[in-house]
Structures are given as structure tokens and as C-alpha cells.
Amino acid sequence: MQAIIDTGMSNRFAISHVNFDKGSRNKFHTHSIEQVLIITEGKGIVATDEEEIIVVPGDIVFIGANEKHWHGATKDSTFSHLYVMAPEQETTQFED
To answer: Residue 49's Cα: distance from chain center in Å?
Structure first.
């Protein structure tokens, strides 16, 4: 069996699985590069200053470089996603 992404590509992509409890979210933040979220479980929210969208398994969200956003679970569901982005990036948080 061959891996989907071989270990030789690990310096090009950061991929991680993130889980949220019901009603929890991360803080408003930006990344210095683009980020892709692949929704894997539950029901979540991805939000900017202008809008909030509900996301479910199978949805894929593109977040542009330096776009202020947050993501997390709805009040009635846990939520999980994979994120994919280049490992060389800076995150800036806007909430304490």
C-alpha cells in the first residue's frame, strides 16, 4: 500500500486533524498563507468578520492568506476537520 502523501513531502505540507467539543471554537486569527479545511465530522462554523457559514462532513473550505477568521463547533454538535497548509507560516491571534 502506498501512502497518500509520502514522507518526502512532509516539508511541503502541514496536515493535522483538529477536534472541537460542542460549542467550542478557536479565537479570531489569521495565517500568513492560505489554509484549507476538510470537514470530517459533526457540524461546525467557519466565520469571518462579515459572515458565518455552517459546514458538515465533506465540505472543503479555502481560507485566504491574512483573512481574519475562526472555526469551531455548533452548540449542538462536536466538530472535526483536517487542515492543510504549508508549514512555514505565522499565525496572529486577535482575542485574548
So the answer is: 16
Domains and CATH numbers, the chain: 7-90 (2.60.120.10)
pLDDT, tens digit (0-9, with 9 covering 90-100), for 31-84: 999 999 999 999 999 999 999 999 999 999 999 999 999 999 999 999 999 999
Catalogue the E-assigned strands of the chain.
14-20, 29-31, 35-42, 44-47, 52-55, 60-63, 70-73, 79-85, 91-93
Backbone φ and ψ of 65, nearest 5°: -55, 135
Among all chains, which residue has been given the C-alpha cell 496572529?
92
Q: pTM here?
A: 0.85
